[in-house]
């Protein structure tokens, strides 16, 4: 089970963001209207169906633990790995809402104890979006470490486009409020499903 009381949070979010939650939670695996936020006040447009413009994914510091040349793989999860498994899906769009095929996504993160593998490639990997601009990442919810809330680092780049670096965050984490790097525009939309924890985020990159 995800350790955050998500079932208690969702009604609060819905109360604050009626437009986003009035009917049902956003479906996973299809383009969503926006990336959600914990406070319900600052979602950013990321290419809702039919929309023509979006806002670039905010960039944040790379931090000290990036390792180049990660293996190409969509799953960072390994059998027996501690932590809560999560499948994160979404799309890469250009700022004019065209899906980006073959976009690079490179993810790296701490393990459930808040530790990075700086000697190998545990919880590190890159992948490319499919012909529809879609990606799917299987991993675990990262642990916190001093000064930092739960986060997954990423780099995203359209073919021949600008390489952008930033971080994804998790809603309902108390340490979000005390993390100076945290940005609510980079919050995953999280759902608990019968099949486990699911996350959703759409990346928006400059047009090549
Ligand atoms: Fe980090």
Account of the protein in words:
It is a single chain. The chain is mainly β and 208 residues long. The chain has a single domain, classed as Sandwich (Protocatechuate 3,4-Dioxygenase, subunit A), CATH 2.60.130. It is built from two helices and eleven strands; from the N terminus they run ααβββββββββββ. The strands form three sheets. Strands 3, 6, 9, 10 and 11 form a five-stranded mixed beta sheet that branches. Strands 5-4-7-8 form a four-stranded antiparallel beta sheet, with no helix packed on it. It has a two-stranded antiparallel ribbon with strand order 1-2. A hairpin with an 8-residue loop joins strand 1 and strand 2. The longest helix has 11 residues. The chain is globular and about 40 Å long. The site of fe (ii) ion has 5 residues, from strand 7.
Q: Tags for this entry?
A:
208 residues; mainly beta; Protocatechuate 3,4-Dioxygenase, subunit A; 5-stranded mixed sheet; 4-stranded antiparallel sheet; 2 helices; 7% helix; binds fe (ii) ion
Secondary-structure topology with pairs:
Elements: H1 6-16, H2 18-21, E1 34-35, E2 44-45, E3 85-94, E4 104-109, E5 124-128, E6 134-140, E7 151-157, E8 164-169, E9 189-193, E10 196-200, E11 203-205
Parallel strand pairs: 3-10, 3-11
Antiparallel strand pairs: 1-2, 3-6, 4-5, 4-7, 7-8, 9-10
This protein binds fe (ii) ion.
């Amino acid at each position: 089970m995800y350790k955050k009381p998500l079932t208690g949070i969702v009604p609060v979010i819905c109360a604050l963001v009626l437009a986003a939650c009035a009917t049902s939670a956003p479906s996973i695996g299809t383009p969503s209207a926006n990336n959600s936020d914990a406070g319900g006040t600052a979602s950013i447009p990321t290419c809702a169906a039919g929309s023509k413009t979006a806002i670039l994914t905010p960039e944040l510091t790379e931090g000290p633990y990036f390792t180049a040349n990660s293996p190409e793989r969509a799953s960072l999860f390994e059998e027996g790995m501690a932590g809560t498994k999560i499948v994160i899906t979404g799309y890469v769009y250009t700022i004019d809402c065209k899906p980006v095929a073959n976009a690079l996504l490179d993810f790296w993160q701490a393990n459930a104890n808040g530790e990075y593998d700086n000697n190998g490639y545990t919880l590190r990997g890159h992948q490319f979006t499919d012909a529809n601009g879609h990606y799917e990442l299987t991993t675990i919810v990262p642990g916190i470490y001093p000064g930092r809330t739960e986060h997954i680092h990423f780099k995203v780049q359209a073919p021949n486009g600008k390489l952008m670096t930033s971080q994804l965050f998790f809603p309902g984490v108390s340490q979000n409020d005390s993390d100076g790097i945290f940005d609510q525009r980079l919050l995953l939309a999280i759902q608990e499903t019968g099949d486990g924890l699911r996350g959703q985020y759409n990346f928006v990159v400059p047009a090549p």
